[in-house]
Amino acid sequence: MNKLILLAASATFLLGTGISQHVRSGPPVTTSEREAKWIKSRTGAWAAHKDGKSYWYKLDKNARLWWSPNGRDWSEVAEGMWADKQNKWLKIGEGKLWWTNDDGKNFEEVPEWKWQGPRGEWYKFDAKWTLWVTR
């Protein structure tokens, strides 16, 4: 009986330590994202949804945010925010990319400056605010 208890405790300990090595913070990373190839965006624009409608967003040379309902007519976004696939609001400030889950009360830096678009595509900025996308 004691051997069985010792064996069960050992197995639980070994399995627990193996699992804890793979735990990470932040949103889960899908296999397709890990294997996806990043390509530089030709247009510098990305898709997003707001109030059930599709919009396009892009940055100018000063990292100010612009939006368009059709990809041709652009207007500056006064509040400077857009939403990702999980409805997190993103914004650029202090030279970093930030997001919030609580309607702008608390912001945290976006890990690796990556976010998911409405169609499942992934976007990221590099240090020079160049847009990269997975296809």
Q: Could you explain the architecture of this structure?
A:
The protein has 135 residues and is of the alpha+beta class. It has one domain (28-134). The chain contains two helices and twelve strands. The strands form three sheets. The protein has a four-stranded antiparallel sheet with strand order 1-12-11-10, with no helix packed on it. It has a four-stranded antiparallel sheet with strand order 2-3-4-5, with no helix packed on it. It has a four-stranded antiparallel sheet with strand order 6-7-8-9, with no helix packed on it. The chain is globular. The N and C termini lie far apart (57 Å). 10% of the residues are buried. Mean pLDDT is 81; it is low at 11-26.
Helices and strands in order:
Layout: H1 2-20, H2 31-35, E1 38-40, E2 45-50, E3 53-59, E4 65-68, E5 75-76, E6 81-83, E7 89-93, E8 96-100, E9 108-109, E10 114-116, E11 122-125, E12 131-134
Antiparallel strand pairs: 1-12, 2-3, 3-4, 4-5, 6-7, 7-8, 8-9, 10-11, 11-12
